[in-house]
Amino acid sequence: MKQPIAFVTNIEREEVDQWLELFSEVMPEEESVPFDQVTDLTAIEIAIVANPRPEDLLKLPNLKWIQSLWAGVEGILKEKSLDHIPLARMTDPNLAVTMAEAVLAWTLYLHRDMPKYAEQQQARIWKQQPFVRAEERSVGILGLGKLGLRSAETLLAAGFKVLGWSRSLKNIDGVETFAGDKGLNNILNQSDIVVNLLPHTPSTWNLLNEETFGQMKAGASLINFGRGATVEPNSLIAALDSGHLKHAVLDVFKKEPLPDDNALWVHPKVTILPHISAPTDPKTASQLVADNIKSYRSSGTIPTVVDRSLGY
Predict the structure, then answer these.
(1) HSE-CB for 225 with a 13 A CA cutoff
(2) How far is it, in rounded angstroms, from Cα 205 to Cα 83?
(3) pTM surpassing 0.85?
(4) Which residue from 145, 147, 247, 288 has the fewest beta carbons nearer than 10 Å?
(5) DSSP secondary structure letters along the chain
(6) Which residues are marked as active site?
(7) Shortest CA distance to 108 belongs to which of 119, 117, 95?
(8) CA-to-CA distance for 106 and 124, rounded, in angstroms?
């Protein structure tokens, strides 16, 4: 007899019910149960998680592996008591497509100077800003994993000059690539728009700070669709206030939701988004989860898991 699967999450109940309905459709042979309704914690071998409380996972003594519904898993990685349990992140290929779409959309937003036109509208100013061709605009992508690669390809197709930076040097057709500290400095001072897609790791914590913002090209803009912890917010505000940076589009933050009293909400050079750049598609994600669980049930195979030494 198959043991139930625990759905361990800290999301709204309505959303929990929607996920459970999808799980029932794609794997009717399985029983998925919200954590607070699990009657025998010792029976749980598999946990599906979405923004879980790590302390809940610690209450499952026979847990064999964890399947995340999100690409970001840093909350679980912080709990060292869970290090021995394999953790599979969401690798839905649709995430890359969705992220690339968002990167292109907000790159165009900055490229065509939409913040300036919004400002002019408020002041009832009718004035055309200088037009710049896409091939004259350099977009630097920090992070060249699946999301970064697809984003680079999409920006190239739109005519932009694309640069990329990663932990180790990569070779991508049409993209000038960099690696290491010197490479980071090079891509920052050459890019008109910097797009952060880096994961949350010890090496990316506050990577974009006073020093690295100072290395950015004067008048450049930032898009942060990676992780909030990569950006040191006070340094960002200082760079915007000084005029060194032109604008920042921020979708991720160290604390979410962004507190009401956070200065970023009212900064005239900041566009705030509520973590929408690459939402998980429930239909494709639930099917991927079902395939992973089916494989585990039939052969004991656990899907590709997070390398905890790297953080992704």
Answers:
(1) 27
(2) 20
(3) yes
(4) 145
(5) -PPPEEEEE-S-HHHHHHHHHHHHHH-TTS-EEEGGG-S-GGG--EEEEES--HHHHTT-TT--EEEESSS--HHHHT-GGGTTS-EEPP--HHHHHHHHHHHHHHHHHHHTTHHHHHHHHHTT---PPPP--GGG-EEEEE--SHHHHHHHHHHHHTT-EEEEEESS---BTTEEEEEHHHHHHHHHHH-SEEEE-----TTTTT-BSHHHHHHSPTTEEEEE-S-GGGB-HHHHHHHHHTTSEEEEEE---SSSSPPTT-GGGG-TTEEE--S-SS---HHHHHHHHHHHHHHHHHH-PPPP---TTTT-
(6) 227, 275
(7) 117
(8) 24
* Euclidean distance between CA atoms 41 and 124, whole angstroms: 62
Q: How far is CA 287 from CA 272, 284, 300, in A?
A: 32, 5, 18
What would the two tokens of residue 21 be? 């309905």
Structure tokens at 57: 């996972």
Residues 142-166: b if buried by 16+ CB within 10 A, e if exposed: bbbbbbbbbbbbbbbebebbbbbbb
Q: Work out the average pLDDT over 121-130.
A: 97
Q: What is the pLDDT of residues 59-74, one digit of tens each?
A: 999 999 999 998 778 8
For residues 89 and 304, what is the distance between their CA atoms, to the nearest angstrom?
8
Q: Which residues pair with 132 in a beta bridge?
A: none
Backbone φ and ψ for 170, nearest 5 degrees, come out as -120, 155
Bridge partners of 34?
7
| Cα 114 to Cα 116: distance, rounded to the nearest angstrom | 5
Indicate the residue type of 264.
L
The pLDDT of residue 310 is above 70:
yes
Please state, as a whole number, how many other Cβ atoms lie within 10 Å of the Cβ of residue 174: 11
Is the pLDDT at 110 greater than 80? The verdict is: yes
Cα 156 to Cα 34, 36, 137: the distances in Å are 44, 48, 11
